[in-house]
């Protein structure tokens, strides 16, 4: 039995490394993050620098992805746009997780009480106002900008994380070791932090990757509508908006930012799918068998 244990652990490790969704998602997501990180210190050109004589050039040795209608380098704009997209998505997911998870744990700890019902109604109310509609409302108060996009998407994420955290926590509260801890006199807060949250973390991690992908799409949509990141800061959504009038003259102007959005969302969805399989003990045991 002792000899089989390391072999089983090695097989599980190989299964994790060989999981195609996880590897593909990690590669694509890492590429987007790396591009955003590199843009902090280097871009081929100043993304705001205009050169009208070089406008609408195709991909070439000087400009690898060409230039837009103002002569700006498309690759530099996509790199800086990745930085803005990652920053908005991370902040929005952070707001959602930071507020929604405690609310979900509180509702699960007080299941069927007035607190649980109040959190449930708050979640239902939030779902009635999607991120884009919330952004329009917030814009009327704060004006357009990255902060508006973060706040609007973050408010929507609060409801998502609260619902997921409540469902995952309720499943853990029904297990024997949690009941035993409560029977021994442990406080609900201590049980939630020591036992419930660690056992519900896998579902929350997977949900975070999914919400990150949703935040990227929402940020692109808000920037397309003029409610997100404002010029002169580049944004993938704004690049798509500018390219719609050039579809017949320079169709690649829409292809590159659209491809960046698609690859970022695809990578995060594949990463979430892979993490779900890797972190689910039942799936790990079935693969190891």
Number of DSSP E strands: 0
Number of helices: 11
Sheet having the most strands = none
Give the name of the CATH superfamily: MetI-like
CATH class: Mainly Alpha
* Broad shape: elongated
Coarse structural class:
mainly alpha
- Which series of helices and strands comes N to C? HHHHHHHHHHH
CATH architecture: Orthogonal Bundle
Question: Helix coverage percent of residues?
Answer: over 70%
CATH topology: MetI-like fold
- Parts with pLDDT < 50 across at least 5 consecutive residues: none
Overall tally of structural domains? 1
In what range is the share of β-strand residues? under 5%
- Mean of residue pLDDT values: 86
Radius of gyration, in angstroms, nearest whole number: 23 Å
**N-to-C terminal Cα separation, in Å?**
15 Å
User: In terms of quaternary structure, what is this?
Assistant: single chain
Brief write-up:
The chain is built from eleven helices and no strands. With 289 residues, it is mainly α. The model has no long low-confidence stretch (mean pLDDT 86).
